[in-house]
Amino acid sequence: MSTRDLVILGTASAVPTRVRNHNGYLLRWDGHGILFDPGEGTQRQMLHAGVSANDITCLCLTHFHGDHCLGVPGVVQRIARDGVAHPVRAVFPASGSEYWRRLRHAAVFADTDVIDEEPIAGAEVRIGLPGAPFTLTARRLSHPVESYGYRLEEPDGLTMLPDRLAAHGVAGPLVGTLQREGSVVAPNGRTVTLEECSVPRPGQKAAFVMDSRLCDAVAPLAAGADLLVIESTFLGADARLAEEYGHLTAAQAGGVAAEAGVRRLVLTHFSERYPAADQRRFAEEAATVFGGDIVVARDLDRVPVPPRRRVVPASTAGAGPA
């Protein structure tokens, strides 16, 4: 059974609180684990969440503010100590390469050679992840330091329809031939096409937008996402501060989700200025513009990617063999 969920390791912004650790988000996707923005304390939060260094196949940093990267030394050293054998791709803004080197080698330890570094630059970058069942794209956001958002996208596919296959007499090895070649000759001599026995299966999508004011890159990152993880550092009353410091309000995050057709919205990266009692206000403000599913992130929560959209096949009338 494949797992597609978000393990939330921290939800604070610049300053952690008693109930919020610095950032950290592990997106688990069919055996792959993308760790976004490990802030201070991420290694310990992973223990509390029941995930390990072996779950990480990719480490993505949006930018080099401390709440998004000070956990890198602990995570890298844990990868080494636990003997992780598979490659771990490390993606980060090339403009911060010197900070990466300092974090990567922050202390003396028995190093590992599985970390595969990929510094990125430019407005849009396709991340190389050989063998992954999805593409990963980064887009540059708008923040006082260079920052990137990330989009994971599974290719579209097809769902085979057993009743249609049976009606056409296509079974056993013929099904595989039909999938590979797009058509097959059925036992009755009729040529059956793939379109007659399947419906489109939209690929699932997830997006991660952290530390940015509204900008042109946000919409294409979020477009049609089944799961959007997005910062909502401020409430609407502090919109001026959000703009000044390069952040979003909860209502702005909700607006992004509404315009992008998002299915599940995860709000996170909350300023320490708001007490725990204000948590519901983030959801309430987002809900004024977004009518979909809203999750106000809490440390150590697990948020599933919504089930795949079902495409309803056209009427089966006349679908049998001619």
TrEMBL record:
Superkingdom, natural source: Bacteria
Keyword Cytoplasm among record annotations: no
Required cofactor names: Zn(2+)
Catalytic EC class: hydrolase
Enzyme Commission number(s) of this protein: 3.1.26.11
Chain ranges of the Metallo-beta-lactamase domain: 19-124
Cofactor detail note: Binds 2 Zn(2+) ions.
Keywords, in A-Z order: Endonuclease, Hydrolase, Metal-binding, Nuclease, tRNA processing, Zinc
Active site: D67
Annotated positions binding Zn(2+) 2: D67, H68, D211, H269
Role description: Zinc phosphodiesterase, which displays some tRNA 3'-processing endonuclease activity. Probably involved in tRNA maturation, by removing a 3'-trailer from precursor tRNA.
Subunit structure: Homodimer.
Family: Belongs to the RNase Z family.
Protein name as annotated: Ribonuclease Z
Species in which this protein is naturally found: Actinoallomurus spadix
Primary gene name: rnz
